[in-house]
Write a structure and sequence with these properties.
14% strand; alpha/beta; 12 strands; globular; 3 domains; D-Maltodextrin-Binding Protein, domain 2; Lysozyme; 459 residues; five-stranded mixed β-sheet
Length: 459
């Protein structure tokens, strides 16, 4: 009996030694101890730049850099998210993570608490406007903003705009956007489509959104530069050194360049153009495949054709910014699970067969959506966003008194709100940030186009 108790105590001691330190702990927990554990825990924020889930796979610029860094050490990466930068530092000091994989502003307050490391980046705020056209002339100097209507969300962007107005002696027509359902990215979209002319945001967010809206002009800085970088606890000097060394050696590496290109250079829009004439009763060269595999799952083949058009413009060689491939733009991991052999992701029949199999499998997740027309909307939404984000939107709809089994004006409204911090940080949400505008438009456009196909082609 005594030997058993000794064994239990020894196991408890071993586990305790492997735990990350609490704020009160005096134990030095640095890279050697982390290496022994086999895992590095990165703390970051949910956002379109740092970390998010896309079609069931983790994405985000900061996530990819963190993964590259951790893999260079031969370790596994674990991600934990915080609500804001203050929460990031609090979680780090409480021992809930090993390093902050997010551009934390280098301020005196944070300097007293953490050690900054890795790549030091320069951030600033920019004016978001449209490129020059016959109807619009972009401003080239902040003094030209006098008399102009500029929109900003409360916080640092609005504060900077107010201070800029004071510096210029007044005259900027500042619009404070308090509506919780409108995000900074929504304002950027409104600038692009001409609803408003000017908005203010951080330059990295502006760069990313320019890959969605090519008509944006984001060249005019409206604030001073702010330095930012990753951070570790002051008791982790060896981890800090490793991060500095990795960034020095890898900022020109192919992997680092590929991540930068993926988020800040590659267009997120699929170019579209007609392939065949509907007057001849044909939508694409792949109609026979759509008919064959749609029949197997009980879908209208013209709906599958509309899905393919939206995803790839019927281009079998297409590769999206996120790595989705082929005619039906399945993520490679999903394609392989659905039976596509490795190396055949661009094969037209394999792609259509796997996509239809995935649609049928996804349908099971929405078995409680009893209306067949509604169920199609949920399935399409999940095809674009991933099932988890649709589940989140359903949970939000239910929480706020909407029908979680109806898409339009119910779940779809909360898909839109999944890019809003107040909603994606809600306890009922399990999958964090998502750019819901894309999914909202995706479902609507596919269904509208499918109706056009049905009107032109009767069988």
């Amino acid at each position: 009996m005594k030997q058993i108790w000794l064994l239990i105590v020894a196991c408890i001691c071993m586990i305790a030694c492997r735990q990350r330190p609490s704020a009160e702990s005096e134990i030095l927990y640095d890279l050697p101890q982390m290496t022994d554990s086999g895992t590095l825990v990165a703390l970051t924020l949910n956002s379109s730049i740092s970390y998010f889930d896309y079609r069931g796979e983790p994405m985000g610029f900061q996530y990819e850099l963190a993964k590259q860094f951790v893999q260079s050490l031969g370790l596994k990466l674990e991600i934990k998210t915080a609500r804001n930068t203050e929460d990031l530092v609090h979680m780090l000091l409480q021992g809930e993570g090993d390093f902050i994989a997010y551009p934390l502003p280098i301020t005196k307050e944070f300097k007293d608490s953490v050690t900054f490391c890795g790549e030091g980046i320069i951030t600033h705020q920019v004016l978001v406007q449209r490129n020059a056209s016959k109807k619009f002339k972009p401003v080239k100097d902040v003094t030209e903003l006098i008399g102009k209507e500029v929109y900003a969300k409360p916080g640092k962007h609005l504060t900077r705009l107010i201070n800029l107005d004071k510096e210029l002696g007044g005259g900027i027509l500042i619009h404070r956007v308090d509506n919780d359902s409108i995000t900074t990215e929504d304002l950027i979209m409104q600038v692009s489509n001409g609803t408003i002319d000017y908005a203010v945001c951080d330059n990295d967010l502006a760069r990313l959104n320019k890959t969605y809206y090519s008509n944006l002009n984001i060249d005019l800085a409206v604030s001073f530069d702010q330095r930012a970088s990753w951070a570790v606890r002051k008791t982790s000097p060896l981890l800090s050194e490793a991060a500095n060394r990795w960034h020095d050696e890898n900022t020109v590496s192919p992997a680092y360049k590929a991540s930068t290109k993926r988020y800040f250079e590659i267009s997120k829009r699929t170019p579209h153009g007609s392939i065949l004439s509907l007057k001849d009763g044909k939508i694409s060269h792949f109609d026979h495949l759509f008919k064959k595999y749609a029949a197997e799952i009980g879908w209208d083949w013209r709906l599958i054709a509309s899905l393919a058009y939206t995803e790839s413009n019927f281009d079998t060689t297409a590769v999206s910014w996120a790595g989705a491939k082929g005619l039906m733009q399945l993520m490679p991991k999903t394609a392989h699970v659905m039976g596509v052999p490795v190396g055949k992701e661009h094969h037209s029949e394999e792609s259509v067969k796997a996509a239809c199999k995935y649609l049928a499998l996804t349908a099971r997740s929405f078995s409680k959506v009893t209306d067949p027309n509604e169920k199609v909307k949920f399935i399409l939404g999940a095809y674009n966003a991933g099932i988890g984000h649709v589940f989140d939107a359903m949970a939000l709809a239910e929480k706020y008194g909407k029908n979680k089994y109806v898409w339009d004006d119910n779940v779809a409204e909360y898909i839109l709100l999944k890019s809003n911090e107040e909603y994606y940080n809600d306890p009922v949400c399990k999958n964090g940030y998502f750019r819901g505008r894309e999914t909202f438009n995706f479902v609507r456009e596919i269904l509208l186009r499918a109706e056009v196909y049905k009107q032109k082609i009767k069988h």
